[in-house]
Amino acid sequence: MTDPSPAAHQARSAPPGIPGLRFLPALVAALAAAWFLGFVPAVARGEVLTWAVPWVPGLGIELAVLIDGLALAFALMITGIGAGVFLYTASYFKGDPRLTRLQALLMLFAVSMLGLVLADDAITLFVFWEGTTVTSFLLIGFDHAKKEARDKALQALLVTGLGGLALLAGLLLLGLETGTFRLSEMALMGDVLRASDLYLGILVLVLLGAFTKSAQFPFHFWLPNAMAAPTPVSAYLHSATMVKAGVYLLARLSPALGGTEVWIWTLTLVGAVTMLLASVWALRQTDLKLMLAYTTVMALGALVMFLGGGHPAAVKAAATFLIVHALYKASLFLLVGVLDKKAGSREVDALRGLAGAMPLTATLTALAALSMAGFPPFLGFIGKELKYEGALAVASEPVFVAGAAVLANALMVACAGLVAVRPFVGRTRRAPKDRPADPPVGMWLPPAVLAVLGLAFGVFPDLLLGRTLIEPIATAILGEPFALTLKLWHGINLPLLLSLLTFALGLTLYLLAPRVRRALAGAEAGGLPAAEGGYDAALSATKGVAAWQTRVIQGGRITVYLRVTFALLALLIWGAVLTGTGPWPAFDIDVPLLHWAIVGLIAVSAVAIVLTRSRLAAICALGAVGAGVAILFVLYGAIDVAMTQLLIEILVVVFIAIALLRLPRIPAGLPRRWGDAALAAALGLGVAVALVAVLGGDLGRELTAYFEANSAPEALGRNIVNVILVDFRALDTLGEIAVVVIAAVAAIAALTARRTKGRRP
Amino acid sequence: MELILAALVGLLVAAGAYLMMSGYLVRFLFGLVLLSNAANLAIFAAGRLTYAAPPLIPEGALAPGGPVGNALPQALILTAIVIGFGLFAFALALSFRAYNALGTAEMNAMRHAEPVPAPTPTAAAETERPA
Q1: Rounded to whole angstroms, what are the CA distances from A493 to A407, A496, A739?
Q2: Is B64 helix (H, G, I), strand (E, B) or coil?
Q3: In the predicted model, is pLDDT for residue A668 greater than 50?
């Protein structure tokens, strides 16, 4: 779980290119962010901007875009944090030939993510949703030479991809139920949806998609494993943007699906469990990046929990915390990357006393961590106060929710200390690298901007953030206009007291951190159940079933292949017969004795071929079958067919006779194969019954009538069958001739090819 | 008559399938021929039978005088017979070649493309690894 070492690649020269080109992605993202900023005044006034073009008109799928508070907030995070991350990446991977690939993938991801949050059409949303899944897979596995990175990438792909499939099903059901694929129209039909019989099914499928994407328990394990990706990727995808796609989806569909008992309980419980487990496990980590990953899972759990509450105060908390978390978490990830690069390690115990050598890094880390811990006057403080306010307002279980929030936040305080204090304080400097130093501007500017924003928003919350973004976000989530004010100082109330309790608890946990970690490690060694075990078991079970199925069905025995094919055919035919409806034909077997005799001859001959061990008798019987069929054709007016049948039948018999002289005898005393006999009987009976069923239906004779009416006037032919073959369907006949020629060429090739050496056992 | 043919088709299919599953090249070829015949008869019967009235137009007329045999299935069967023969001829040549190259007429013994995993421990590990 170490970052790829660019140094190893620096030996190879970077590809030639325009100098400064590596900063282009950052520039593009910054321009996009500025463009999106231009929408803020309109959205803050409560406007919702839409734009749509037909995409797949036949299926009613549109490329519809909608910009409301929620979409705009995400778009700003994607482009704004994106600009910072791209700039950081250009420095972080400077001189590394893989930089171009990384930037291309990051841009691809940014576009997918933007499409996801801007989409108003459910199908468009899903397409971009899968786009983020795939780019996330490629980015986690960026260091593809390492097996570990590939495994983790696959794990993330499978978990989020399966969730994506569930989401697709859920969205399609939503579309069927509401009659529209516009998310904005679905949002207005909440009452219809909540009363629908399909509601529970839709909810389960959508929640599966959201929970896997946003790493909720028990699907949380893929996110810490995704830290196999390079640090900028972790900062961007796996903390600030992509993992919030599930949260975004829940927020977006909240007006359509939210508010029911099952919604409230599922989201509150799953979110709370995720939040608590993740914050405990965060403290157990020694790798700072992993620790941050677990705190991200914690934040996602908190967001889900508050979206479940449905109370305006809870929604306000979720909307604020969304921004808070994106700002401090992205900057902390980037700063841990700086530590890794400039001090040589991310291990909490390997770093000490670096403040003197890296003063700027220390300051910035402290700024971001103060917001994470929720100290005033940072935005994190407001976020935390709102969380407590929201938790206390949750109608169902305020004590449980608030208690969980306090505990999780205390653990956040401890983690913030471990990230921002532990590596920098102390008298003796300790770092794996000889000369730790502050990074170049490209690597400190992005986290600096994010951290300072966290402070600025905290000082002027209502002016900069409350009216411009939080209010529109909350309006979009609640589905109705919602006015709020963000304040730094709420007076002395219960949330403030809870805050003080949090700080005290957090400080204690920070001081006890090594002991807590040891205790947790002991618990883990003692066999604490890990959700990842389920993933591993499911994966190996799938592989096991695939191997078993290949052994059984495709084991290389031709008779088995034939049995499987015939059995499937029989199953399909019987399925069609048994599920079909329609009249049976009248029972009519009043035919001349001669016809009976011919049918009897064919039947007896066929049975004889099966029973006889004499090759000569079998060939004779085969000839009798062919001749009998030809006679049937003659009797019922198919003279051309009969002539062809006779000619071909003669050829077949001659060929077989020649070949049999050279092929070995069938060994005597073959066992009767009762299983095969039963299968053959089932198939034969099925075909017979299906044919009878066909005879019970009406025969559409339009084509025949057309050919009968047009053969003479148009094609000047009196033999209708011949006219069809050589005139109306002449191209088919040409194809038929081609098939025969190809078969003949192939047969000649097979017969005249030289014997391959060494093939004979 | 169609119902009788339906029964006959069922019998031919069953016999053909049984022969093809026997695992011996010659019997496989017999089964293939029976199956082709069964398919042709099935198309014929499904198009309904008309006794002794070929789909011909009398000289000087523009359409058949009365009800005649259904021309469409007949055209289909003609094609099917020829294609079936092509398939049979190729299968025959291939069988012949396989017998010459592999030295056996038992289809299950032809394991050149998918060899039987040897029971030695190393080879067993090789094939079991995907599991």
Answers
A1: 19, 5, 88
A2: coil
A3: yes
Peptide bond into A218 cis (omega under 30): yes
The number of CA neighbours under 13 Å toward the Cβ of A127 is 15
Q: Confidence band (pLDDT; 50, 70, 90) for A565?
A: very high
> What would the pLDDT profile of A740-752 be if each residue is shown by its tens digit?
999 999 988 888 8
* CB contact residues (below 8 A), chain A span 686-745, against chain B: 686-689, 691-692, 694-695, 699, 701, 703-704, 707-709, 711-713, 718-721, 724-725, 729, 732-733, 736, 739-740, 742-744
Q: How many helices (H) and strands (E) does chain A have?
A: 32, 2
Rounded Cα gap, residues B32 and A113, in angstroms? 57
CA distance linking residue B3 with residue A583, whole number of Å: 14
- DSSP of A515-569, one letter per residue? HHHHHHHHHHHTT---HHHHHHHHHHHHHHHHHHHHHHHSSS-HHHHHHHHHHHH
Q: What's the confidence (pLDDT) of residue A527?
A: 47
Output the CA torsion A599→A602→A604→A607 (10° steps).
Answer: -130
Put simply, the answer to whether B6 touches A695 (Cβ < 8 Å) is: yes
Q: Give me chain A's average pLDDT, please.
A: 87
Domain B2-51+69-116 in this protein, CATH class:
mainly alpha
Amino acid letter at A662?
R
- Domains of chain A (ranges plus CATH)? 19-258 (no CATH), 260-553 (no CATH), 555-664+673-699 (1.20.120)
Residue found under tokens 């008309």: B50
Rounded-to-integer distance, Cα A110 and Cα A716, Å: 68
Do A648 and B85 make contact, defined as CB atoms within 8 angstroms?
Answer: yes
Exposure of A671 by Cβ count < 10 A (0-12 exposed, 13-18 middle, 19+ buried)?
exposed
Q: Give residue-wise pLDDT tens across range A124-147.
A: 999 999 999 999 999 999 998 999
* Token pair recorded at residue A136: 């996330």
Q: Provide the ipTM.
A: 0.87
> Shortest Cα distance from B120 to chain A (angstroms)?
18
Query: 3-state class of A340 per DSSP?
Result: helix
State the CB neighbour count (10 A cutoff) for residue A564: 13
Domain borders along chain B are 2-51+69-116
